[in-house]
Amino acid sequence: MKIFLTPLVLGLCVSGLAIAQDPPENEPAFVFPEELSLVPEDVQRAAEEASSAEDAAIPMGMTAAEEALYRAQIAWIDEDWVSARQYAETAAAGGDVTAAVMSGLIARDGRATGEPDYALAASWFSRAAEQDHPLALYEMGRLARREVPGVTDPRSWFERAARVGHVPGMVAYALELRESPIPQERVRSREWAERAAQQGFAEAMYQFAQLLDLGIGGEQDLASARTWYESAAAERHAEAALQAGVMWVEGVGGPADAERGWAYIRQAAESGYAPAQGQFGLLMLQGRGGEADPDMARYWFEQGAMGGDGESRFLLAYVLAREAVDNRDVNLLGQAYRWSLLAHEDFTGQPVDETRRAGLQGAIEGDLPPDLREQIRYEINSLR
Fold it and tell me: What are phi and psi of 317, to 5 degrees?
């Protein structure tokens, strides 16, 4: 799952070296919101009234399993994970599917013990999956991706989750199909992604936009891709906001509007998304869509660099090197050198443009005292 940006081109020059910025490639962690429709409103009210799950008044007529689930839900609200686990496992052992899912989630996250237990989580999720519980099917797929012993074939689990209407499961299944070498399966990938996107789920809208953007599973449709990126951005999806912003700045998929692009990229940057922070800094350095502000551009390069984005590190190294040359500041040049070395790869482990990075590094090395250069290289190598 990569971000594909239209280049925002900027000519940079250090010691006569010409550099042009290309788009970073990143693969953000694919994390779905935990949709827990596990605690009904009446239980929430009971939790507010009771001092603990054990002391809660139990409605008349409940079976032993229903009572255990009720107390587990109250403990869940109170974040009393030890009690929640005890009661949920009791209810699950009595055949309650919701309790089995709760038990699986507690084990998966290590909420009661402090350490995840994926094997135990799989045993509980599998009980609920036998009853086609949507979240349990989806979680089994995620455990299969982790290669938990005894849990295999994530695609089949995600397909089952998708077919019972689980929206994150639809997206996960679409992503599995997207990687297929069979053209018809890539067509199905787009169909499932669109179905999920129409439910208003931000990650689904983003993934569907990617398929349209790249022409996977059908014709490339940049105009529709931009629309879907915007829809996901409206739901605070940072990657989508960055994509939408770049498309508006460059006029991809519709007319160009640098101010509108600036707003989207700023949204993504302010959300803490490191690649967007570097891109927003670049806009500020260029003055595209807003007033040029080199000092704030450097601030955003720093934010993206500290967030692990290789492109931000490269741009920070550039502005530091330029300032160092202008002020004949060897210490500042040393900082630029450090960032040029750290820009070798981004926060996902993907390499940045090695030609540009190596060129900048070489230009800095030409003006850096050998002893300082070797000291910095030693420091950086010790971090790897």
Answer: -60, -40
